[in-house]
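Bench notes, bay 3.
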Amino acid sequence: MTSASDVLRAAFDRHTWATLELIGALEALDPSELETSVAGTYGPISQTLTHLIDADDRYLARFDDPLLPSGPGHRTEPLDRLRDRVVGNAQRWSGKLDRLDAGTLQTQIIGKNDYPDTPHAEGMLLIQALHHGDDHRAQIGSTLGALGLDVPDLDGWSYWAAVHASG
């Protein structure tokens, strides 16, 4: 029987898988293509991907530091470094979900310009991480499509087929 915890863990496993799949697709690009942006997106592919992973780091840290300042914007890191960070964050997400299961994941957000005071912010941070990742992965997909390049299929169907396919 599938539990609510199993579903949430699958959502975060898919979050990690989708980002790693995207990095794999981006590794085949010419470096100049990584600096492409299209209107309506965060910015160039390299900045958008770095921003996505920087934000995951901040969401994870906010569980333990309600006063954490906003992070730097518009920076880039090499794909191999980003891949390592995603793998490390997968372990950190699992640890947070372990704490959620144990009833010991309790956090709040202390209000400032970009966040209101939010007691019991656990759900908000978990939802935001998943949404934020999908949003920016889609923006990168839009940029790849605008360049006429292949866009990796990162939806839930593809994740399930790749990771949970039997036989």
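Next record in the batch:
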Amino acid sequence: MRRRTITALALTAGLACAPAATAQTSQTAPASTALPASATAPATGVTPPAASTPAPASSTAPGVSSQTSGKGSDSDTAALVLLAVIGALLLAAALAFAAARWWAWEPHWLVRWRHATGEAGWRTSAAWAEFRDWLRLGR
């Protein structure tokens, strides 16, 4: 989507710059073609061939291709699909977690693990308090 927008903007800018490109082309013509026909005409009355006119400016900006390459758009589409799938999976996981919290569902192993971890923390803090008391008394 972004690439198409940039390409459209570049095309619009190229169309706006087309008259300026034509003016630059005509200004950069060699001095020999700028002379009037009467100055270069031979005495026989035959006029020289007309100077070639500059080619019309293209409708695209310089350096911008008007055709979109299939490779870039395919990879962009694949990236967007992958991003959408990852987003959907994350959304589903968040909704499952929210539902489990809402209905207070907890597996039996999580309850035991939480109790064991809490008791281990309580025992560790008690052991640390004993150690601080031992240091404070100077034993």
